[in-house]
Structures are given as C-alpha cells and as structure tokens.
C-alpha cells in the first residue's frame, strides 16, 4: 500500500455498492454485539451479510479495517446536536443521547466490544479516538455558545466539558457504576455544567 493510500474500509462507496457496505457493517456490528471482537471474522461477516467474502476482503482487508469503517458509519449516523438555548439544556440533551445509546442492548454491547478491543489493538484504538473526536466536535459548539451568552467564563475548553458529560455514563457502562438511566444522564450534565461555571475547564 502506498503512503497516500487510505486505510482499508475508510473510502465510502457510493451508488449500488452502498447496499453492500450497509449490509456488511450491520453484520459486523451484530457480530461484535453478540460475540465480541475476538470472534469477528471477515468470512463469517460476509456470509452473514449475504455477500461474497472476496468483496469483503478486497474492500476492508482486515478486521480492524472493518471496525474502523463501522466507527466512521456510527459517527455519521449519530443524531445531530440539539440546541435548547441554555447550557444545561444542551448538555442534558447530549447526556441523554449518550445514555440512550449505551443502555440500548445492541449498542451498549457493541461499544463494550470495541472499547475492549481498543485496549490491545492500536488501529482499533485510533478508530475509536476518531469516532469520539467527531462526536465531541459535533457538540462542542453548544459550550462555546454558552461562553458567548455569558453563561461560562472566557477560555472554557468546550471539548473538555463535553467529555465530562459522557465520562460517568461510560463508567457506568464499563464498570457497573450505578444505573444507566435518564437520572444518571441528567446528573452527569448538571455536574459538568456546574464545574464549567466554576471555571474548572478554563484553559
């Protein structure tokens, strides 16, 4: 592969091949959620998706290439940022979106499998980092808007505030740190908003 060539699976197919990509990514996600990263096999994914394994090997190349593309797709399919007009309202909307995703039986299991794989596979870790970076950049403007409205001190790091909202929810997912419900989401948003108002996230 030349230095300029993209990673396998990172080029978005268009037209008639889009259906193949959708089917393969769905099959990969289902396998990850049901059986974990260790049991993700390209030939099995191809069979499950109803496509030729040659197509899967040619397009994605490796399991990690497939997971990377799955994370790209998940980031793009995530719901857009909600604007409520207040910092707390926006952070609660973000927290509840994260909470609904992580408490969903399929999505929660899928994230657990990917996070577990990322601890020992550098390419999966990088793909996961890109996923979170995309989502944080989507939501960071709501914090900057709060700065502009005078709700938060100048110099507040918007990305850190958004990370602070989701961190306790991922802790609950991975470590069983209490129920992963709307009340937990609202507490996470309230804590992040209070800390931000107090200047904790000023750079």
Compact summary:
This protein is mainly α. The protein contains 9 helices and no strands. It folds into 2 domains: 15-74, Arc Repressor Mutant, subunit A (Orthogonal Bundle), CATH 1.10.10; 81-197, Tetracycline Repressor, domain 2, CATH 1.10.357.
What does this structure look like?
The chain is mainly α and 203 residues long. It has two domains: 15-74, Homeodomain-like (Arc Repressor Mutant, subunit A), CATH 1.10.10.60; 81-197, Tetracycline Repressor, domain 2 (Orthogonal Bundle). Helix content is 70%, strand content 0%. The protein contains nine helices and no strands. The longest helix is centred in the last third of the chain and has 28 residues, at 122-149. It starts with 17 loop residues before the first helix and ends in a 6-residue tail after the last helix.
């Amino acid at each position: 592969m030349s230095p300029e060539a993209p990673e396998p699976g990172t080029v978005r197919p268009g037209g008639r091949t889009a259906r193949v990509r959708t089917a393969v990514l769905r099959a990969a996600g289902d396998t990850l959620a049901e059986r974990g990263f260790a049991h993700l096999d390209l030939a099995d994914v191809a069979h499950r998706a109803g496509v030729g394994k040659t197509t899967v090997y040619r397009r994605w190349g490796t399991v990690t290439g497939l997971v990377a593309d799955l994370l790209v797709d998940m980031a793009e399919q995530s719901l857009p940022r909600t604007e409520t007009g207040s910092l707390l309202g926006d952070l609660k909307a973000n927290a509840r979106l994260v909470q609904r995703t992580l408490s969903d039986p399929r999505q929660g299991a899928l994230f657990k499998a990917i996070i577990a794989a990322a601890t020992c596979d550098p390419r999966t870790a990088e793909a996961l980092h890109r996923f979170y970076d995309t989502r944080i950049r989507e939501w960071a403007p709501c914090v900057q808007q709060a700065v502009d409205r005078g709700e938060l001190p100048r110099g507040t790091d918007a990305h850190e505030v958004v990370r602070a909202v989701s961190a306790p929810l991922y802790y609950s997912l991975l470590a069983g740190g209490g129920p992963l419900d709307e009340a937990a989401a609202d507490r996470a948003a309230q804590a992040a908003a209070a800390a931000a108002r107090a200047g904790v996230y000023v750079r």
